[in-house]
Amino acid sequence: MTALSALGVDLPWVLLLLPLALLPVLVSPLRLSSAPADEVVPRDPLSSAIGAAIIAAGALAIASLIFGLAGFHLREQSIERRGSGANIVLLIDRSSSMDSTFADRLPDGAEESKSAAARRLLTDFASRRPADRVAVAAFSTSPMPIVPMTDEHEAVRAAIAAIDHPGLAKTDVGRGLLLAFSMFDASSSESSRAVVLVSDGAAVIDRRVQDALRDAAARSPVSLYWLFLRTEGAKGIYDAPASGEEDSPFSNPERHLNIFLKSLGLPYRAFEANSAAQVSDAIREIDQLEQRPTFYKETIPKRDLSPWCFGLAAFAIALLLAAKLSERRLDEDVAPAGAARAQS
Amino acid sequence: MSLAREPAGPPRRDLPYRLFGRARGVAPGAHRAVGSGANGAFLRHVSLLELPDARRIDMRASLLDPLGGVKVRRFERRARIDVFVVLDLSGSMAFGRSHRDDDPVADLCAAIAHAAIRGQDRFGLIAAGPTPRADFVIRATRRRGVPDEVWTRLRAEAGAGRGVGGLLRSIEELPTRRSLVFVVSDFLMPPEALDGLLGQLWRHDVVPVVVRSSAVESRLPRFGLIETRDLETGRRRLVLMRRSLRERWLAEARARRAALDLVFRSYGRPGFDLVDRFDGDAFADFLLSGGV
């Protein structure tokens, strides 16, 4: 991007007035004194320089006023930065069970809820990794994209902060994962991609959704992390059912989700966390795994340059005012008779 | 007394101008002329045989002549001369004299016209700027109304245009007989033009009158920005007036005037400075002393 194309104006037609900036060449701000001939006035480089400066100041004043009126600005720019990080989609469970503690109780002062812990730890995670591009999505009854893939960590933080609001009833992991896979954009294709699924339970994934997920996984290879916030007494990921007990996705959804995710053929890790400390350990591990060179774009917002234009115009006009105030004229009127005689 | 008979301009006085050398011409006047005449200032004796004028036999000189010849007195002939004003009407001459009641140039020309006609001489005017001005040519005349006419018309005409080309061409209309020519100009012209002007007037007795204005010579502001516009070319120049520049400006004005005087002296006599207003006494002094 060249320097010129970075500049823009709001009202281009105002720039049609720009030829007015040539006016100072034709018209002087000072009142002219007649002089019988040029030879009368001595040559003086300093004066010529001041004359040129006054013309320049006049042209500058008019031009910068016009630019100011036209709304001169620096366009929004994005700078490609290189950092070490990843493109991460945080897929967060918003089901109502997240609002209870790890001990499956209502949160009190001593123990925070799972969602609050997740919020706190994910906020830390995001702020530790400034080079990441992060997207946030949530799912419960249906998946909700919250923030698309972005460099704006403010937005990510705000999105994460919103996850401990009271959630809904169900847990639709499959469609949530589909949404997460679809949130990677083209610009993330060269660096590492990861989906961090944060949930405290699982559900049966529809067969059609399973097919779609396999399809998506084949198309866009991502690393998949499942941070399972295991509530006390709930079934774990690795718990094989006791013999005689039914082993189906309906009875052991977590175990079968794990098996399904493994079968996707992606780099996959599952973390089972029983407490906030374990969650934090898991996140640190993800942190270490996802450290590959990544390119990300930092966006510098549009900057309005018209105050600078007006400031410049004010400066030029102040110069002209100073010139005007120090203006003198050759006094063509004749001095009183006595004075004239004394001089002649 | 009717309005038409009232003199225009300030009161005028006689001016003691003289023609350097002897005048030529037959019309009687007040100036010493070539040749001898019948009365006036004594010139020399001649023999009665040479000039058979019995009325002017000088008895005493005849008796004292050892050779016994009869001597007749001869007197200086006095003739009238033509007095011309050659006036530069280029744009630069407009400076400081726009319709003023005491327009120095009009005052000066009217005073010369008045003095010339009072002194039994003829007055003529040739004024032109870059182009010849037929309406500003007055042939040598003794008309009584000429001073007023000159004053009225010159006061209304400030001058315009660039250069003195027309004036150089109009000068050819001067009579070939030696006349007294007042060249009234600010002489802000290139040296070639000045040489051309004075060189063309070689046969006449030239009195340069330098029109100056104290506004551009001594009454300069001490400090400030001045933007000047050349009255002839219209070019603008900006100057930051300050102590050093003011001194240089004044020094340049003095140097210019000194250089002009050098040229004037090589063509006859130094110039008269007409600064801001016409001072009849100063002009009379100048004419009497020859500017020295």
Question: Helices and strands in order, then pairings?
Answer:
The complex is a heterodimer of chains A (344) and B (292).
Chain A lengths: L6 E3 L13 H4 L5 E4 L9 H25 L2 E3 L2 E9 L1 E7 L20 H15 L4 E7 L3 E8 L2 H9 L11 H10 L10 E7 L7 H13 L3 E7 L23 H10 L5 E6 L2 H14 L2 E9 L2 E2 L1 H20 L11 H7 L1
Parallel strand pairs in A: 5-6, 5-8, 8-9, 9-10
Antiparallel strand pairs in A: 1-3, 3-12, 4-11, 6-7
Chain B lengths: L27 E20 L11 H6 L6 E9 L2 E7 L15 H15 L3 E7 L8 E5 L4 H11 L8 H6 L9 E6 L5 H10 L4 E8 L11 E7 L5 E6 L1 H24 L5 E4 L4 H10 L3
Parallel strand pairs in B: 3-4, 3-6, 6-7, 7-10
Antiparallel strand pairs in B: 1-2, 4-5, 8-9
Helix pairs in contact in B: 2-3
Percent helix of chain B, as a range, is: 25-40%
Count of strand segments of chain A: 12
Number of helices of chain B: 7
Mean pLDDT of chain A: 80
CATH topology of the largest domain in chain B: Rossmann fold
Contiguous uncertain segments of 5+ residues of chain B: none
The level 1 CATH classification of the largest domain in chain A is Alpha Beta
The total domain count of chain A is 2
CATH class wording of the largest domain in chain B: Alpha Beta
Structural class of chain B: alpha/beta
Strand order of the biggest β-sheet of chain B: 5-4-3-6-7-10
From the alpha carbons, calculate the radius of gyration of chain B and give it in angstroms. 23 Å
Classify the beta-strand content of chain B into a percent band.
25-35%
Shape of chain A: rod-shaped
Largest interface: A-B, 37 and 47 residues
